[in-house]
Write a structure and sequence with these properties.
The structure holds two protein chains of two kinds. By secondary structure, chain A is mostly helical. Chain A is built from ten helices and no strands. Helices cover about 80% and strands about 0% of the residues of chain A. In chain A, α3 runs antiparallel to α4, α6 packs antiparallel against α8 and α8 packs parallel to α9. By secondary structure, chain B is an alpha/beta fold. Helix content of chain B is about 40%, strand content about 25%. The chains are: A mainly alpha, B alpha/beta.
Chain lengths: ~250, ~260
């Protein structure tokens, strides 16, 4: 890896440290990096942060999986059948334009204040992103490749499994990657506002309510690292599964 | 080996214009035939309907009037290989080169191992070397187009339709692929219909060159090319080649000015 990639993060830490040492900002707004790390250590030592991470990850995993699977399963026929696509186009565009946050109250009514509503919200958000990407992936299959299939007298099943499905895979996977990032945001936000026993959103919100700024920053740091790590892992997965993407 | 017969073919399509729908006549009373095992090039201005014509012969599209027969059958009934100008879009980037060439075999139900063996045998017969385990996007442009051609041969195409296959390649690659396609044609003996907008290429390759007019496409002239085979780059220096080139160029510009007079 290129060496200079770590320069940015190091510079940011130094800047953070210097700013707090010079007392440029009230520690209530910005604690020193050392206090933040100390708080992180104590959160880790008692194990509470691990429970939070597991809680958030579990909701994310279930919500994202449900939304992603349903999105692919419904997106394939929607992209494949022109009439189905035309009749659903407005509905899909409408629902994916509704900010998912505006639906929180509805999800609370339908699923209660427990885990199901948080999972359902994440699933809903993932679903539309994956649905739209799968639909367009199928619709944007290369015309030339379909002619190749036709020229070689491929059966309808073969055209679908051997041409359309692999050709739309890069966009489906790209949709899954976006959905994963959005689902993480949704889970953290629902944990803040729908309350829960363990979750990073809850940890952040509680820390802010009690003015535990160091803990607040430590929790944000963990959440950020989690999102970053998940995305990196997914990109790695993507480069293996759809190696031809963008080439 | 097959013959192609096109008899009074007409084709138009409607296009959305500024003032509603325009009817565009692409082909009009077009007739010509291609003999068994013959190498024929179609030459004409860009956008004159050569691609449409080729797609009709492949069975991807149909004529409004007239008749198109491949070996007295409807287009698409006889095994036909179509080589597109855009090689990257015609290959399957998720499959290795060997499996790309083996595609027609796997569609027929061959096991992967058997299909791969057949491909290696085919390439051996053709004396073609390609990086079989690479993915198409890792190959040079010329090699990718050769993969597409090899795939059409694996399909045992009796008729090969090439739509400006080398026009996006650099000069050196184009010259070497022109030699390759001639070599393969002489080795296999299939009927070839090759669309080109490069006059030298069209003359160098063909037994006959069919000069098409501007849209709607009609046959302006058919030029028989009796240059000796096998042909090499030296052909370009011969006086016969120069004569043919002058004649074709003249006829081409005649057809354009006739079109502008209308």
């Amino acid at each position: 890896m290129r060496k200079e990639v770590i320069l940015g993060p190091i510079a940011a830490c130094i800047l953070w440290y210097v700013a707090t040492e010079l007392g440029l900002l009230d520690p209530l707004f910005l604690p020193s990096p050392i206090d933040t790390v100390k708080s992180l250590c104590s959160l880790a030592a008692t194990g509470v942060i691990v429970t939070d991470i597991i809680g958030t990850l579990a909701r994310l995993a279930i919500g994202f999986s449900i939304g992603g699977c349903v999105g692919i399963v419904l997106g394939l026929p929607t992209g494949y059948f022109n009439k189905l696509y035309s009749s659903l186009e407005i509905l899909i565009d409408f629902f994916r334009s509704v900010p998912v946050a505006s639906l929180f109250p509805l999800f609370l009514v339908f699923f209660g204040i427990g885990n199901p509503s948080k999972v359902a919200t994440a699933a809903w958000a993932s679903f539309f992103i994956v649905l739209v990407n799968t639909t367009y992936g199928v619709r944007n299959c290369k015309e030339t490749r379909l002619l190749v299939a036709k020229g070689m007298k491929a059966s309808k099943t073969q055209v679908f499994t051997k041409f359309i499905l692999p050709d739309s895979l890069p966009q489906i996977v790209a949709g899954l990657r976006t959905a994963l990032s959005i689902a993480l945001i949704v889970v953290v936000v629902t944990e803040m506002f729908m309350r829960t026993k363990a979750g990073l959103g809850k940890r952040i919100y509680d820390a802010s309510l009690t003015y535990e700024t160091a803990e607040l920053y430590a929790s944000i740091l963990v959440t950020g690292l989690l999102g970053y790590g998940l995305n990196k892992l997914f990109v790695l997965f993507e480069s293996r599964v759809v190696h031809w993407s963008g080439k | 080996m097959v013959t192609v017969a096109i008899d009074n073919a007409s084709k138009s399509y409607t296009r959305k214009g500024n003032h509603g729908h325009d009817k565009v006549q692409v082909l009009e009373n077009l007739s010509f035939s291609v003999g068994n095992g013959e190498f024929v090039t179609l030459f004409g201005a860009n956008g004159c309907g050569k691609t449409t014509l080729l797609k009709i012969i492949a069975g991807f599209d149909s004529v409004d009037n007239g008749r198109v027969r491949v070996d007295s059958l409807a287009p698409g009934e006889v095994k036909t290989g179509f080589i597109f100008q855009n090689y990257a879009d015609s290959l399957l980037p998720w499959k290795r080169v060997v499996d790309n060439i083996a595609l027609p075999l796997s569609l027929k139900g061959f096991e992967q191992k058997a299909a791969r063996e057949k491909v290696e045998q085919l390439l051996g017969e053709l004396n073609l070397e390609l990086p079989l385990s690479a993915f198409p996007y890792q190959l040079s442009a010329g090699q990718q187009q050769m993969v597409a051609i090899a795939r059409a041969l694996a399909y045992e195409s009796e008729l090969l339709l090439l739509d400006e296959p080398f026009s996006s390649l650099d000069f050196q690659t184009r010259v070497s692929l022109q030699q390759e396609i001639l070599r393969i044609w002489q080795n296999r003996g299939m009927t070839v219909l090759f669309v080109s907008h490069d006059i030298e290429e069209a003359l160098f390759l063909a037994d006959r060159l069919i000069l098409l007019t501007n849209r709607p496409a009609k046959v302006k002239e058919i030029i028989r090319i009796e240059l000796p085979r096998p042909r090499s780059q030296e052909v370009f220096e011969s006086s016969e080649f120069s004569r043919l080139k002058v004649r074709t160029t003249k006829s081409f510009f005649e057809s354009i000015s006739e079109c502008e007079k209308k």
